[in-house]
Amino acid sequence: MRYLPLTATNRAEMCDSIGVKTPEDLFAGIPEQARIQGLLPLPLHQPEYVVEQYFQATAAKNLNANDAPFFIGGGVYRHHIPAAVDALIQRGEFLTSYTPYQPEISQGTLQYLFEFQTQVAMLTGMDIANASLYDGSTACVEAIMMANRVTKKNTAILVDGVHPHYAEVAETYAAMTGFNVAKQSLSAIALNAPDISCVVVQYPDFFGNIPDYRALSTQCKAKGILLIAVCTEIVALGALEPPAAWGADIVVAEGQSLGVPMSFGGPHVGLFACKQELLRQIPGRLCGQTVDTLGRRSWVLTLSTREQHIRRDKATSNICTNSGLCALAFSIHLSLLGADGLQKLAALNHAKAVQLAESLENIGIAILNTSFFNEFTVQLKKPAAAVVEALAKQGILAGIPLSRFYQDRPHDLLLTATELTTEAHIKTLCATLQQEGC
Description:
Layout: H1 8-18, H2 48-59, H3 83-89, H4 92-95, H5 107-124, E1 128-129, H6 136-151, E2 155-159, H7 164-177, E3 180-184, E4 196-202, H8 214-223, E5 226-231, E6 250-254, E7 270-274, E8 287-291, E9 297-301, H9 324-362, E10 366-367, E11 375-379, H10 384-392, E12 400-401, E13 412-416, H11 423-435
Helix pairs in contact: 3-9, 5-9, 6-7, 9-11
């Protein structure tokens, strides 16, 4: 591609066309404190080995989460990833593949994506799943926009307990694309407004609770409102009944827990599944099974013209690709586990969380949940943010203070346990919390 420099006049015309004064206005949604000020503090004009030493020294400052007592969850979870996952996804034919623009010559890619879709549909209990999206939060927004198209309405109700980050992503999309987002509590939900397209719930919710959404599902169906279920901890579906069982119309999830490392927040993989009658509005890519001219089993991209996703306002999605390598990692990990293995992994996660909760109760810390899978909320005697900072200095990653998202909950702390949480980790956390007077 040729380099075509823009003149100041070109830039001014582009800004005028989209309604901003300067390119800086495009970054207005990023908080000032999150922006990099000036140049990065990198060594300039140094030999390669000096730069390598610099980065190695900088990386050494990070706390090794594999060794530390680790109780952080909140949408991204630390799980064991079998060595076979990395070994397989790093094969050249997987690692270097992109997206099947000419699907008929990408049979291997299409096959694993078809198998991935099948696994997601089975996990969620839904009729059909797509070939993945970017992550859980954008999958949630895609579900809302799909509901708007299906119902021809434009307001999404987010029930308390939906991840705050997912809510923020939905609000950002809403501001730019013209739909509305409202928040309501499950106990006092009102669905009387005529423009409600969908209700979004999380399962388990952000605080770790496992609500019963059956009554809500009945209300939604009576009013022609779609029910969207969000699951940020996909391992939970190895223990809980699938969202389809209690009436979800669309299920979206973050698939990071299986096969994908935390990676400081990404890249991850969004899961998307729905009922059969919504099939033609599904966003992203969909792989189907067929036979070739010789009668051999083969795979195709289906229900989608090859360039559907760049057809501007006529497309079902603005996503032109998918998290293919992460989807493959998810599929390999789940295949290695099998149905029995996933159930055992889920049971182990829950058992670790129960052990953690009981240990905390034994030292006088209040558990706020009446139900949970591997994550729950506690109330400390001191502000949780200060406690988390104090424990981090001692090499303990002690969860997420809810004051980060809810200013009226300064003492509440979200804790997670997985199969990698050891008895020694739990004892260390409890002893240190006691020392801190919590």
